[in-house]
Design brief:
6-stranded mixed sheet; 11 helices; 42 strands; Neuraminidase; Rossmann fold; about 15% helix; alpha+beta; 2 domains
Length: about 675
C-alpha cells in the first residue's frame, strides 16, 4: 500500500472508460525544437523502504515513465530504491542538472513512492515526499503515515531535519535554482499539501544561489511556488482564429515561464492499482501516448493531462481517487509531443539495405552440419546475437553479431527438465537478456524455461530453474500456459502469451501473478462476427513494444491487431486479403523497433512492410517472391535489434535468415 492508502483493486466495479489513442498524425510531424531547447527529466521510484512499508509498483511506474520520456527526447536521470536517498535526489537537481539546464529548456520531475501531508499547528497541510533513507521516528516517537497525514508540531524545519523527509521548501528550491522555463512535477500519490496556496505563504526566507549571490525573497521571484487562485488552466490569451496559426499559439504558450503540478489525488484518498501500475500512472502513460490530446492537434498540454486524468481516474477507482492539477507560477503551458507526432526522417521512408556480407555467415542458412529446415522464430539480444528456433529441427541455435554459430546448448539444458515429448515452440528475449522458451507437449500443455545468453537455465519466479507451467490467478488458482502459443516480454519483464487455438491472451507479472486475460471469449457465431475486428482469428506473430502495447500478426484475419491489456486499440491497418500494397495475405511476423515503427512479414505476398505504429502510414515495403538476395518465399518472422538498425527476416520457404540495415 503506497501511502496515502494505496491498495490493489483488480476487479474494479466500474468498467474502464478507456479513451483510445487516436492521435492525428501531422503531415510532417511536429518539431518540438521550435518550442524548447533541451528536455530534461528526473524519475524517482521507490519500492524497498527500510523504515516504512514496502511498495509493489512504484518502480514499475518509474521504469515505464522513463521509457516514455526517453522516446520523447528527454534526457532522463532515474533513481530507483536505494539510489533515491534525500542527499542524492537533491544532488541531482542542485549539482548535476542546475549547471546544465538552460533558460529555454523544460524539466519533468516524476515521483512514485511514499509521501504524506504534514499538519501544521494552523491546521493547514504541508506536503512532503519520503526518500528511501527517511527516518520512521522522531524523538523516539514512531512516525505514523496512517491516512497520509502526520502531526508536525510547532517546529516544521526541525521535523524535516530529524526525519530526513523531502519538504515543500526543498521541492520549491528546485524551481528556484533550475533555469528551465517550464517545470512540471508529476507526483503519483495523494499530496494535497503540495497544492495548498496557504502553505507556501508560511515559507518566505531569502536564499543564496549556487553562485553565492543572494536571491530576492521567494514571494517576489518568478519561481516562487505561490499558487494562483481561481482557474487552474492556462491564463486566457488571444488565440489565433485560423488553424494555420495554431503554431503561433503554441509558440506563445511555450515562450512564457511556468511551474505546474499534477498529483494522483488528495491526501487521505485510497490509491488504486491496475495492471502492475498505480492507476494514476497507468492512465498517465496512455495520456502521454495521445489519449489526453483532447483537441487532436498532436500536442498534449499539461492542462489536458489534468483534465483527462481528473475524469478517467475517478471512474476507474470507485470515485475514491481524484487527481489534482494546478499552476504554481507563470503563464505558460508545459507541452508534450506524443511519439507518433514526431517528424519522420526521410531515411525511414526508404527500404533498408540488404546486408550481403551476412550471406557468408553461419546464420544465413545454418551451418553445413546443421542447415535450417524451417527457421520460424527469431530473437536478438543487446549484443546483436541472434537466436533462431527451427520448428522442424526443433532446435534453438545462437549466432554472434557477425553470424557465427556459438551455441547449441539450449537443448542440453532443456533435457535436464523435460523428456523428448517436449519440443521448443516459441521464444522471446527480455530487457535483461533473459531468453524465455515455450516448450510444447501434446499431452501436457506448455511449459517455459528461462535461460541466460549462454543457454544455461536461470531461476524464474518460482525461485528455481524448473520449468514454469502457469501463472497464478485470483485466490491462488493456476492459469496454465497454452500448448501452442506465442510469448513476449515488456520492458518491466511482464510476460505476455497468446493461445493460438482460441486467440486468448494473458499478461503475468514478474512474480507470476496473473494481471489480465482477454481475447476471443465466446463461440457464439453472431457475436464472433460482430467482434471480428477486435479479436484474433489465427495468431502467427506476437510482440510487445517498449510502451507495453501488444501487436498480433493475425494470419487468419489478414491484418495486425493492437491491444493495451484488455483494451482493443483502433488502428488503420486493413483486414482485407489481397496483394495490393495496402492489403495483407496471411501476415505471420511482426516486430516493433525503438522508434515505434512496425515491421510486418506479409507472408503469402512474400514481402516486408514498414508502418507507423498504428498503421496510419505505410512507410515502405520491399521484396517479392523469389530465391535471389532480397527476395522472399513465405517469410514467417521478423525481429529488430535494440537500436533499430538491423532487421532479421526468417525467410522460411528459402530456408535462410536475411539481414537488412536501416540507415540512421
Amino acid at each position: 500500500m503506497r501511502i496515502c492508502m494505496r491498495f490493489s483493486f483488480t476487479m474494479l466495479l466500474f468498467a474502464s472508460l478507456f479513451v483510445r489513442v487516436e492521435s492525428v498524425l501531422a503531415q510532417n510531424g511536429i518539431d518540438e525544437s521550435k518550442y524548447y531547447g533541451k528536455s530534461w527529466a528526473v524519475v524517482i521510484g521507490i519500492n524497498r523502504y527500510t523504515g516504512f512499508p514496502e511498495l509493489r509498483y512504484a518502480v514499475n511506474d518509474a521504469v515505464a515513465i522513463e521509457a516514455r520520456l526517453k522516446r520523447m527526447g528527454f534526457q532522463v536521470t532515474m533513481l530507483l530504491d536505494e539510489q533515491a536517498t534525500k542527499a542524492q535526489i537533491l544532488n541531482v537537481f542542485q549539482q548535476q542538472l542546475a549547471p546544465q539546464i538552460g533558460a529555454n529548456d523544460r524539466l519533468v520531475v516524476f515521483y512514485a513512492g511514499h509521501g504524506a501531508a504534514g499538519i501544521l499547528p494552523s491546521g493547514e497541510e504541508a506536503g512532503f515526499l519520503i526518500p528511501v533513507d527517511a527516518k520512521a521516528e522522531i524523538n523516539g516517537r514512531p512516525l505514523s503515515l496512517a491516512g497520509g497525514r502526520v502531526e508536525i508540531g510547532n517546529d516544521y524545519l526541525n521535523f524535516v531535519q530529524k526525519t530526513n523527509v523531502l519538504s515543500v521548501e526543498e521541492i520549491r528550491n528546485i524551481s528556484d535554482t533550475v533555469a528551465a522555463k517550464h517545470i512540471f512535477y508529476i507526483i503519483d500519490g495523494c499530496y494535497s499539501g503540495f497544492l495548498d496556496p496557504a502553505v507556501y505563504a508560511h515559507f518566505q526566507p531569502s536564499r543564496t544561489s549556487g553562485s553565492g549571490q543572494k536571491q530576492t525573497p521567494l514571494a517576489e521571484t518568478s519561481r516562487s511556488l505561490i499558487l494562483e487562485s481561481g482557474d487552474t488552466q492556462a491564463p486566457q490569451m488571444a488565440i489565433p482564429s485560423q488553424q494555420a496559426n495554431a503554431d503561433e499559439y503554441l509558440t506563445l504558450l511555450t515562450s512564457r515561464e511556468t511551474v505546474q503540478v499534477l498529483t494522483a489525488g488528495s491526501s487521505g484518498e485510497q490509491v488504486f492499482e491496475k495492471s502492475g501500475h498505480g492507476i494514476f500512472t497507468y492512465y498517465l502513460l496512455r495520456a502521454l501516448d495521445g489519449a489526453a490530446d483532447l483537441n487532436k492537434d498532436c500536442v498534449v498540454r499539461a492542462g489536458e493531462l489534468g483534465t483527462y486524468l481528473k475524469e478517467i481516474v475517478p471512474k476507474n477507482s470507485n470515485f475514491s481517487q481524484t487527481p489534482l492539477f494546478n499552476r504554481i507560477s507563470g503563464e505558460g503551458e508545459f507541452l508534450f509531443i506524443p511519439p507518433i507526432c514526431h517528424p519522420i526522417m526521410p531515411t525511414e521512408m526508404q527500404p533498408p539495405t540488404l546486408d550481403t556480407a551476412w550471406e557468408n555467415s553461419d546464420a544465413y542458412r545454418g551451418t553445413k552440419s546443421l542447415p535450417y529446415k524451417a527457421p520460424s522464430q527469431l530473437a536478438v539480444d543487446e549484443q546483436n546475437a541472434l537466436y533462431v528456433l527451427d520448428s522442424e529441427r526443433q532446435r534453438i541455435l545462437k549466432f554472434d553479431a557477425v553470424g557465427k554459430l556459438i551455441s547449441e546448448r539450449f537443448d542440453q539444458a532443456a533435457s535436464q527438465f523435460l523428456n523428448a515429448d517436449w519440443q521448443p515452440y516459441a521464444l522471446t528475449i527480455g530487457n535483461s537478456n533473459d531468453i524465455w522458451v515455450l516448450y510444447s507437449s501434446k499431452e501436457n500443455g506448455g511449459k517455459i524455461i528461462v535461460y541466460d545468453t549462454d543457454g544455461q537455465a536461470l531461476a524464474n519466479w518460482s525461485g528455481t530453474a524448473s520449468p514454469l507451467s502457469a501463472c497464478v490467478g485470483e485466490e491462488g488458482a493456476s492459469v496454465p500456459f497454452p500448448t501452442k502459443g506465442l510469448l513476449a516480454l515488456d520492458v518491466e519483464n511482464n510476460l505476455f502469451l497468446i493461445n493460438q487455438a482460441n486467440g486468448m491472451m494473458m499478461k503475468c507479472e514478474q512474480n507470476g501473478h496473473l494481471l489480465h486475460q482477454w481475447g476471443q471469449a465466446t463461440q457464439d457465431k453472431l457475436l464472433k462476427s460482430l467482434n471480428t475486428y477486435k479479436t484474433v482469428a489465427e495468431a502467427a506473430g506476437f510482440v510487445v513494444d517498449l510502451f507495453g502495447y501488444v501487436y498480433v500478426a493475425d494470419a487468419g484475419g489478414n491484418g495486425i491487431k493492437k491491444f493495451f491489456d484488455e483494451d482493443w486499440i483502433k488502428t488503420s491497418w486493413p483486414t482485407v486479403k489481397g496483394d495490393k500494397p495496402s492489403f495483407f495475405n496471411s501476415p505471420r511476423g511482426v516486430a516493433v523497433d525503438n522508434m515505434l515503427f512496425v515491421y510486418v512479414a506479409d507472408t503469402n505476398n512474400c514481402r516486408m512492410k514498414k508502418y507507423t505504429n498504428s498503421g496510419e502510414k505505410l512507410m515502405t515495403m520491399w521484396g517479392k517472391k523469389g530465391t535471389k538476395s532480397g527476395e522472399f518465399n513465405q517469410p514467417r518472422a521478423v525481429v529488430v535489434n535494440r537500436d533499430g538498425t538491423l532487421i532479421y527476416v526468417a525467410d522460411t520457404g528459402n530456408k535462410r535468415i536475411q539481414r537488412f540495415v536501416v540507415e540512421r
